[in-house]
Amino acid sequence: MGKVNWLSPRIILPEDHGALGFGVALGFWVFLHPWFWVALAAFEAVVAVKETAWDPRNEENQPFFWEGAKDLGAYQVGIALCLVLLYLAHLL
Hints:
The protein is mainly α. The protein has one domain.
């Protein structure tokens, strides 16, 4: 096993998508609290269209399976982590 390149696109790009999902969800919670679920559903729709329709047509080597699915999954992980932390903060 060799040295890990933490700045490799295979590592850093999913992290970027996850961080973006987390940040958007947190921003919606802070700034759009009454409309949080509506805004989050709209963001999910935009991300799904981006990863399934836009990226495969407009980015090189970005078919939905597996690159787009991996990106979409990273968004979901970031959003889920944000929701879990918001729930835990609510319990305090």
